[in-house]
Amino acid sequence: TAHAHPAAFASRYTALVVPTFEHKDLTACDEHKEDDGDRKEACLRRFAVDQSPRTWDDVAACFADGACIMYHDNFPFSHNTTNYPRLFQNPDPHHIRMFDCIQSERYEPYVVMRWSAALSAFDEMFVGYGLNKIQWLWTLRKVGFRYGVAPNTFLFHVKHPKSQAREVFRRGIHQKKNIKGPHMELVYKYASQLLQTYDDVEMEGRARVPICPPPVQDIIERPGPNRHPQERTPGAPAATN
Fold first, then answer.
1. Burial of 239 by CB count in 10 Å (0-12 exposed, 13-18 middle, 19+ buried)?
2. CA pseudo-torsion sign 140, 143, 146, 152
3. Is the four-CA dihedral 52, 1, 110, 92 of positive or negative sign?
């Protein structure tokens, strides 16, 4: 995509979203127990090779059949802004659709960008599993990066054994209802610092991508000690991008 669309990277503040899919049926190899790790991993590798789409036409057909879905379909905030049905309605396979807004601060697509000094580093508070990518994408949006969809390009997530780091993160106290552990408190603090640092800073020649206005019933407050970082306010139905 970068070679086919060099103009897309004329600005160092452009991030191209790579749409990411997965199989709808995630029961593959469940006949192997977690403690039979080697056999289960070998089974998943075979499944990935045999069943995963290899081309754009393959993934389009799989999506149309309902066998392939948006990655993390169970948590739509993370990828909904990409507008997956619209990916296959583009009459121009070379057109890069830029976003006027994003539907949630929790949007965390996989992106391709031009390497430059404008790229922020990952914050070392979030080394390891959990929230490292989302805090980085928050920062990029605040410094003026804009999103567009890479045409006829995709990633495909395949089922794999759960990592130990993920299991530790998921078992943490922060996963319990209405209780926030140290890791989640860090991300709330980071979000508040971003707002304080960048909200009143004007960027010459650039504008931040705003949050799409939500439906009236979907009012989510700005970050606070017990809130997820959001910037939505009441308004018209969300834009479709």
1. middle
2. negative
3. negative
**How far apart are alpha carbons 8 and 10 in whole angstroms?**
6
241 residues of the chain, pLDDT tens digit each: 566 666 777 788 999 999 999 999 888 888 876 666 688 888 888 888 888 999 999 999 999 999 999 999 998 999 999 999 999 997 788 889 999 999 998 999 999 998 988 888 888 887 777 788 888 999 999 889 999 999 999 999 988 777 777 777 776 554 555 445 677 778 878 888 887 787 766 776 677 899 998 754 444 444 444 444 444 333 333 444 5
d(C-alpha 137, C-alpha 127), whole Å? 15
Strands 155-157 and 146-149: unpaired
Residue 5 DSSP label: -
Helices 182-198 + 132-142 axis angle, to 10: 10
